Amino acid sequence: MATTITKTETLVGKRIRRREDPRLITGTATYVEDIQLPGMHYAAIVRSPHGAAKIRSIDTKAAAAAPGVAAVFTGKDTEKVGPVPCGASLPDLRVPHHYILAIDRVYFVGHPVAVVVATDRYLARDAADLIEIDYEVLQAVADPEKALAPGAPAVHPEWPDNTAFNYHQEGGDIDKAFAEADVVVKQRITSQRLVPNAMETRGVVAEWRGADRQLNLYTSTQIPHLVRTLVAGMLGLEENRMRVIAPEVGGGFGSKLNVYAEEALMGFVSMKIGKPVKWIESRRENFLTTIHGRGHVDYYEVAAKKDGTILGIKLKIIQDLGAYHQLLTPAIPTLSVLMMPGIYRARNIRADIVGVFTNCVPTDAYRGAGRPEATHGIERMVDILADEIGMDPVEIRRKNFVTNEEFPYPTATGLIYDSGNYAAPLDKAIGIVDYAKVRQEQAEARKQGRLLGVGLSTYGEICAMGPSPATPAGGWESATVKIEPSGKVTVMTGSCHHGQGEETTFAQIAADELGVDIDDILVVRGDTAIVQYGIGTFGSRGTAIGGTALYFALQDLKAKVKVFGAMLLESDDVSFSGGQVICNKTGKTKALAEVAGASYRAMKLPPNTEPGLLATHFWEPPNFTFPFGAHIVLTEVHKDTGNITIRRYIAVDDCGNIINPLIVDGQVHGGVAQGLGQALWEQAVYDDNGQLITGEYMDYTMPRAHMMPWIENDHTITPTNVNPLGVKGVGEAGTIGCSPAVVNSVVDALSHLGVRHIDMPLTPEKIWKLANAGGNN
Amino acid sequence: MFAQTFDYTAPKTLDEAVKLIGGGAKALAGGMSLIPMMKLRLAAPEHLVDLGRIKDLNYIREEGGALHLGATATHYDVESSALVRSKCPLLAETAAAIGDVQVRNMGTLGGSVAHADPSADYPAALQALEAKIVLRGANGDRTVSAADFFVDAFTTSLGEGEIVREVIVPIDSSGASYQKAPQPASGFAMVGIAARVKKAGGKVTEARIGVTGLTNSSFRATAAEKALEGTGGSPADIQKAAALVAQGADANSDIHASADYRKHLAGVYAGRALSAAIGRAS
Ligand SMILES: Cc1cc2nc3c(=O)[nH]c(=O)nc-3n(C[C@H](O)[C@H](O)[C@H](O)COP(=O)(O)OP(=O)(O)OC[C@H]3O[C@@H](n4cnc5c(N)ncnc54)[C@H](O)[C@@H]3O)c2cc1C
Fold first, then answer.
1. Choices 3.40.50.720, 3.40.50.300, 3.30.390.50, 3.30.450.40: CATH for B175-280
2. What is the DSSP letter of B51?
3. Coil/strand/helix, residue A670
4. How far is CA B140 from the centre of its chain?
5. What tens digit of pLDDT does each residue of A420-477 get?
6. Which of A352, A527, B93, B282 has the smallest CB count inside 10 Å?
7. Which ligand 1 atom is the nearest neighbour of the CA of B162?
8. Which residues in chain B are closer than 8 Å to A129, comparing Cβ atoms?
9. Predicted TM-score (pTM) of this structure
10. How many CB pairs under 8 A join A and B?
């Protein structure tokens, strides 16, 4: 009863609609909040209202006696759990012990102090309000440069200089480069703190099954397996007794590439009370306690020749770490250093990072993680240099591009760029925008007092994180493919997509390799009890590494299908295509379903062959991949209000081969939205007491649909040879390419007024002042 | 994000509502301002009296040469009403500038007025229209001018136990416009200027300018009004008048706009509102 599969078309490269979307857009997907378990209890967390304070006493009596309350726990109860792990290692890194609940001191607003568990979430919140905490409020410090100043309050009293680490890296001969320079340009450039703002906040359901000695942890995470290893360790539970499930995850942008106190705390609570417990982070908690991104103050110096040739780059990064290290906190700015030359032939570099503790929520990976900061810096500096020597920003870029013949190109920061054709996207973008014409328009508009700007960024980035030696937890990825007895195909990927569309792209890859219909393929991820160990989804690695693991698993499986097919066809010369094993001599065929059935029925087995059709592959990448592109932004600055209009946005990205152009475009659109967010609107602002004053949507300007420009999207294709799919990754490209193009454009609009640099976000008031200072001063 | 326990009543008549409200009992209209405050536990009324079922509060009608708008008319009702659009387009234009579709479908005129958010849009228009606000209390109705009603941030002349019953605006031949600089995150007005102008024989005979967002309470920019009245309403006349809108104002300042920038914006948006209003005045 095997049906003949008549699949002829290949799917890779096609604009196929996302197979995950129907359940997402009809509201029927299952997120952590949708998990309902018998006997469910609800947790409310009491958090510090102060940036820095000593806890004199905590009185939980009234809360414990409140209606519906099952338990109240404070730091004393959870002292032995944890600590919240820091996975990054740097020489002489100071790592404060990160208890899951504060013991005798709080370090930032939102710091968890106690947890109340009740039969319903309203009762839990009511009881939480009854907990009395006597704080001795201390002076806080929320600004990294202020934290480094002598006499600043110490975030951790044991380290009065607030310095978590100093990091130094050099390549080439930087002193010689600066000595030989005709021109040196310097600029302080900030990359403000941002709130990642996943649409789904964090959430955890923990279910301890005492009789089975089994902890089930549902959590909204990008890395279920790593959460299992690390949270089991925090709880002192055997790893194989813990199952982590990441059900539908409503976005992460890096903020869920982490292990949080609440994940261990819910496990602890459930194990104590013997009941399942649910905690869903409120939006307010999300602002205050989920990691933030960026938080850089950068000091750049670029040395160059008169003709625009870049000789060397010096960079000092002051990284606002927040009060603790979360999973990768101190490692993020090191990515900025790796990427600091951009796609330019800068042979000499010197970088210094100071990691600074502040009384703020920790920073960590946020879409781009270190690369947007670096790209923003180098792309701004190239424009500043161009301005200094009177060169066109396009020409100076062309002059310094790594050329096509130089690949694989070793950078001064120790990377090897895989492949590139850096002029290609720039040429294409310039063609789309008609560069000469817009420059002419700009000159004419200026005469009439209108402020038009033209800005570009030619960015490069690091994707496919990454070779294991370069990552804290292993940089490979895994895939298992099963062909079920009926011929249906199940793909289990160790990556853990949460919006990126791999349910579609992985199915495209598998459908093409096996020659089956895409609807015959199910892609499963996010459950440690079902899926073999995996690393997860972040750093634009899903397809480049997870997809490649899948590709190799499919090759193994195809080989086995052929072996069984050959047996059934009684032939030693077979091929496998279009979902059938074909005898090359007779032309006779066996459909995949028939082969699969026979492999499980196992009436007869080929020599040295096990029954069944299953293959697993763990793929270790030999290198990162390095996508690139060119974004051009046309702006108009309105002198009377300081408002900025984006007149055109052109994005030409090169992410290697494209599996699904629709999904790639979507990634670029979303990335650009977040890049515009940083460039124009978003900022996590703490006051001097460590209060987050943009801690809700009434003050934190999230990009919304009506604020978006039309994005003119195009691509060039330069495959990588790092993986057989030739794919590089595109998850972060939009964000990385965007912000410098926007700022360059607005600076360009104001450059004749003497404006050379503007820090983000480009708020109307800031722009209004700059646009009107020239004439008045 | 979880409100404290409260009682809830949905009376069908105004009299019942008036009996219930006061003390720990608060009116609930669209809930767009009250419910977020309750969820953040910044407000914890013991009892909510839902005005939504009271037919006698939900109307928009023309009566005695004026427009009467019941307190529970939603922003969407006001924005889309053919009557309001033809007889008092300024109010429809202002309603359309509030929040987003969801907020306009739920939020009410009475709720906005009673809440008196310093950045709310309606107060500017009501000031420019010299609107009357009818309040109902235990002793019956009393009528207050918009100028007297808005006292300070979140403070009105509503007495204990009183509710906003209706808003009355004049119907006349003036030209008007509402111009708003939205705060980028919230969409509320950093400044909002409502201008209303009458013209005769090529001269501005009457100018009314309502300002919101700039200070703790909405107000009428009388110096600017006077400066425009009697002029021909040329661009230069408008500029001169607009420059006076923020004069002497104790402007608010926050992360989105300093006091100076707010004052500057008030001038820019007053210029725009006055130009549009003069263009529309017949
Ligand atoms: C996302 C968002 C965006 C918004 N943007 C804007 C904006 O751009 N511009 C703007 O002006 N507003 C904006 N708002 C506020 C919105 O207009 C509210 O509708 C309005 O402020 C309150 O009206 P309500 O009917 O929802 O009142 P409620 O929230 O129900 O009540 C508000 C207060 O008024 C009292 N109250 C309500 N009705 C009466 C009555 N008849 N008599 C006496 N007291 C009463 C209540 O007791 C409460 O104290 C926004 C709100 C949200 C949530």
1. 3.30.390.50
2. G
3. helix
4. 23
5. 999 999 999 999 999 999 999 999 999 999 999 999 999 999 999 989 999 888 999 9
6. B282
7. 43
8. 41
9. 0.96
10. 48
